[in-house]
Write a structure and sequence with these properties.
The protein is of the alpha/beta class. It has 10 helices and 11 strands. The strands form 3 sheets. A 7-stranded mixed beta sheet has the order 7-6-5-8-9-11-10, sandwiched between helices. Strands 1-2 form a two-stranded antiparallel ribbon. A hairpin with a 5-residue loop joins β10 and β11. The longest helix is centred in the first third of the chain and has 15 residues. It is elongated, with a radius of gyration of 21 Å. The protein starts with 7 loop residues before the first strand and ends in a 7-residue tail after the last strand. The mean pLDDT is 96. The chain binds glutamine.
């Protein structure tokens, strides 16, 4: 962007910034220029289109420039503006939590479907991060009683704020600890989980936005990416009521391995693999058997 002092009209600064982003290979240059400007001006993105001739004052230009500079350092737009959209909610996000992804919205669809016939379903969002899954379950099923757990205190704090903003905090219990450690003897009708599942060696190959700015704690699934599924598949049964559901997000190519882990426990039936909007197997759902053979 030119640094010569001048007065900027909204459309001009937008066009200049999109060209600038495009030259520097920032994806979706125009859209991202718009999202950042809308945040600075506290407008909805589409309302920018009604104000193309609006002059920006010096403070607005400075704040916008600061956002543009962050974006050039590959900070994701959601961290710059501080929020991410997920289903019906707008969630606060900071680099302490993964930015919720559209793929995870599919997991919530599957969970809501499986809860449809339950009267007061006890749900757990294991590794809740920003709270996207937990809060959506509570928001979209008003009978749901939700627990949300995470190993990161910082993440839980953000999730709690998000719950308050979304008006669902009275139906959510917060638990801090490593996977099942903080659960005591609680039993659930549904456990939903989007665990870290990226292979350790693949982290270096992720987009700079992810690799440099998102929390590796929420991404790194160990050498083969499957560390958390091994632990979840072996331990979840103890926290699931008979006929309860377990629903997990998985990474590309992990479906067969995770299905075998579930099958290997002999505790689950109706194991199902559901594809995301790009037709990639993305969610595994299963039901805990009512009768579990012992011995
Ligand atoms: N979907 C994320 C990514 O590919 C990974 C999320 C996770 O590990 N749970 O960047």
């Amino acid at each position: 962007m030119s640094s010569a002092p001048r007065s900027w009209k909204l459309l001009d600064i937008l066009e200049e910034t999109s060209r600038f982003f495009a030259d520097r290979h920032i994806p979706d240059a125009r859209l991202q220029a718009e999202l950042l400007l809308a945040a600075v001006l506290d407008l909805k993105r589409l309302d920018l289109y009604l104000q193309f001739d609006r002059p920006l004052d010096a403070g607005e230009v400075d704040r916008y420039r600061d956002c543009v500079r962050q974006r050039l350092r590959r900070v994701p737009v959601q961290y710059i503006v501080g929020t991410a959209a997920f289903r019906h909610l707008e969630l606060s996000v900071t680099p302490a939590v993964l930015i919720p992804r559209p793929e995870t919205e599919v997991l919530v669809d599957v969970a809501l479907e499986r809860l449809a016939d339950r009267s007061a379903p006890r749900c757990l969002d294991l590794c809740c991060g920003s709270g996207a899954i937990a809060l959506s379950l509570a928001f979209e099923n008003e009978r749901a009683l939700v627990a949300a757990s995470d190993i990161s205190q910082e993440a839980l704090q953000i999730a709690r704020q998000n719950a308050e903003r979304s008006g669902v905090s009275q139906r959510i219990e917060w638990l801090c600890g490593d996977l099942f450690a903080p659960l005591g003897d609680r039993l659930f009708d549904l456990i939903a989980c989007n665990p870290p599942y990226v292979r350790h060696g693949d982290i270096a190959t992720l987009e700079p936005e992810v690799r440099q700015h998102e929390p590796h704690l929420a991404l790194d699934g160990g050498g083969d990416g499957l560390d958390f599924y091994r632990r979840i598949c072996s331990d979840a049964g103890r926290f699931l009521a008979p006929a309860a559901h377990i629903i997990m997000e998985i990474g590309h190519g992990q479906a067969d391995d995770v299905v075998s882990m579930l099958d290997g426990t002999a505790q689950y039936e109706a194991v199902d693999v559901i594809a995301d909007l790009n037709d990639i197997p993305r969610v595994i759902a299963a039901q805990r058997r009512v009768e579990i053979a012992h011995g």
